[in-house]
Amino acid sequence: VHRLVTYIFVYEDLLSLSCGAVVIWYFAGSFERNVGTMKHCFLTLTFAVLSALLYLLLEPLVSRVSEVGDAKGFLPVAFATLGVSTTRSRMKRTLVFGCRVPVVLVPWCVLCIAWFIPHSSLLANLCGLLVGEAYGLGYCFCLDFPEAVGSRLDRVFPFTVLRRIPGLKYIPGSSAERRASESS
């Protein structure tokens, strides 16, 4: 069961680790600013488990048609956060390599690009994207909890420690606290 989460920490070489780090920094950072650090940690674990379960469900079916790579690295979770961000975005169009495309197509364009990242699994990334899209469209509403609960959880153990680490920017769970910290 522990492998449902630990696969996100497995990398084959330095190149796949650096590609994963760039994706984490770019996509997960903006997602964390929108939901807060505590909820981001919760959703990271949840997206990792749900992506792994979907991968385990689809892998026997897809392996009959073509070769399937093992799920490794943080990319499936990054695709889940990208799927949530683009699904809930108010923007209609954005620039991708100089071309204006609908925002909902951005994760699919990035998925095509991620196919060329060494040691990344297309099926695992697709599973992460599908989990993120489902959450973004509201099909996983049971994962959302009230801001009061998030604000209360911000004041318990590991998050109180995270607040005190110098150089680490902790983003509060409630939207009012996030706006107050942004303005200061």
From TrEMBL:
<dbReference type="GO" id="GO:0004252">
    <property type="term" value="F:serine-type endopeptidase activity"/>
</dbReference>
<dbReference type="GO" id="GO:0016020">
    <property type="term" value="C:membrane"/>
</dbReference>
<keyword id="KW-1133">Transmembrane helix</keyword>
<feature type="transmembrane region" description="Helical">
    <location>
        <begin position="6"/>
        <end position="28"/>
    </location>
</feature>
<keyword id="KW-0472">Membrane</keyword>
<feature type="transmembrane region" description="Helical">
    <location>
        <begin position="94"/>
        <end position="117"/>
    </location>
</feature>
<feature type="transmembrane region" description="Helical">
    <location>
        <begin position="123"/>
        <end position="145"/>
    </location>
</feature>
<dbReference type="Pfam" id="PF01694">
    <property type="entry name" value="Rhomboid"/>
</dbReference>
<keyword id="KW-0812">Transmembrane</keyword>
<protein>
    <submittedName>
        <fullName>RHBD2 protein</fullName>
    </submittedName>
</protein>
<dbReference type="InterPro" id="IPR035952">
    <property type="entry name" value="Rhomboid-like_sf"/>
</dbReference>
<dbReference type="InterPro" id="IPR022764">
    <property type="entry name" value="Peptidase_S54_rhomboid_dom"/>
</dbReference>
<feature type="domain" description="Peptidase S54 rhomboid">
    <location>
        <begin position="2"/>
        <end position="139"/>
    </location>
</feature>
<feature type="transmembrane region" description="Helical">
    <location>
        <begin position="40"/>
        <end position="58"/>
    </location>
</feature>
